[in-house]
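Example record for the data management plan.
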Amino acid sequence: MYEEYIKSERTPAGKVLEHILRKAKLTQKQLSEMSGIYPQRISELIKGTRDFTIQQSIDIEKALGIGIEGYFYKIQANYEVYAFLTEKELTQHPDLSKFSTALFWDTRIEKINWIKNKEWVIQRIFEYGNSQEINEAIRFYGKDTIITILHNIGSEWKKETRVKNFKEFLQ
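Corresponding structural encoding:
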């Protein structure tokens, strides 16, 4: 039952603990009494204002009957690695001055993760972008990456525009 959470890298350990408590219909105070950890500390762990120590993780696991040693500590480590890599990826982006904010009308351009969302970004640029935006995408991602992604788009929506731009800029 608990194995599903340990693989979750996008969820902080405190949120997992909160979810488990809710499913078990336990309060933070009850967990505090069961684990011997101060109620304030349980609250801080759930809110994410304090990190789990190995000892706290083990004490809470025992109190909840979770048979995976270091469970919350491992979830916390997975989340921290994910957050670090995501933060690093956010520094990698094309020259944003080359893009119109209208191209990404549904999001803030400075919040786009250009690495994780490259399929969506490339599709958007080749469907709605102008020559400056398309050329900047080619410079940033490289022709091979863009060609591969464009060939794998299954949607018929704006396909004609994508094909036209593909022929004009990549052939």
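Summary line stored alongside the record: The first helix runs from residue 3 to 6.
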